[in-house]
Write a structure and sequence with these properties.
Layout (H helix, E strand, L loop, with lengths): L10 E6 L17 E3 L2 E2 H5 L1 H8 L4 E7 L4 H6 L8 E6 L8 H8 L7 E3 L4 E4 L6 H8 L5 E7 L3 H4 L3 E8 L2 E9 L9 E8 L5 H6 L13 E3 L2 E4 L10
Length: about 240
């Protein structure tokens, strides 16, 4: 008997895949948009998660789906040997947005937990190891953020906006707001979030525009940039 099959995971990763991608405007889920032969957007988004597993962590990937996401479920079969993969439907009573996806996944989370979006690709120096570094930050903080610098006010107002300042302990979040009406004073956006197991609800509060952000004071792991696949023609954004 392979007893490693019964070992609990070290880290959980929430991957919200229940959206319909109406802005994307294609007949297939945007996370399955092909970037190169055999390589889709979701594969690039999961690359830092694969780095966690390669480093020796047992990863539980919690994929939140809707009934229309059978193609995404089939695609993820390629990772069966890399992660423990659990699928759960996004609960109707949790709401249709990102916070609803997180709420649907929380009962399945074990250990430090990361939120990874399937349509966002980190790039640049340090991107591959960014999630590993974020998990390491949790040794001293309840929450950690993978972030990238932004300058365009219009783009900041559409994102999880942050102000990152370089303090004594390193890059630190001093302001945070989800899709702020006034982008003035923000200089970055979050790409991924990490929390200790006793602070799982911080993930919900971080994406709730009406809540006080739990990201203020969190250490930031900076990456050069990311691509948000909002349309098939996008190649790279800041």
């Amino acid at each position: 008997m392979n007893r490693t099959l019964f070992q609990p995971p070290d880290i959980s990763v929430i991957l919200p895949c229940a959206g319909v991608g109406s802005r994307f405007g294609a007949a297939y889920p945007k996370e399955l948009h092909c970037l190169s032969p055999g390589r889709a957007v979701i594969d690039e988004a999961l690359s830092p998660v694969a780095a966690l597993a390669a480093h020796g962590s047992r990863v539980r990937l919690i994929v939140v789906i809707g009934a229309h996401k059978t193609a995404t479920v089939a695609h993820l079969a390629r990772y069966e040997g890399d992660f423990e993969i659990l699928f759960t439907y996004q609960r109707q009573d949790a709401g249709p947005d990102l916070s609803g996806a997180i709420i649907s996944a929380l009962p399945l989370c074990v250990g430090p937990t990361l939120l990874v979006l399937p349509d966002q690709i980190m790039w640049g120096d340090g991107a591959e190891e960014s999630l590993l570094r974020a998990v390491e930050c949790l040794e001293a903080a309840p929450t950690a953020v993978v972030a990238t610098k932004l300058q365009d006010p219009a783009e900041i107002s559409r994102e999880g906006a942050l102000r990152v300042e370089h303090l004594t302990g390193g890059p630190t979040i001093t302001r945070a707001a989800e899709k702020p009406a006034d982008p003035q004073g923000f200089n970055a956006a979050w790409v991924s979030l990490a929390v200790r197991p006793e602070h799982l609800t911080h993930l919900v509060d971080a994406v709730d525009r009406s809540a006080v952000s739990p990201l203020i004071g969190a250490p930031a792991v900076m990456v050069e940039g990311y691509t948000n696949m909002t349309s098939p023609g996008i190649r790279r954004t800041r």
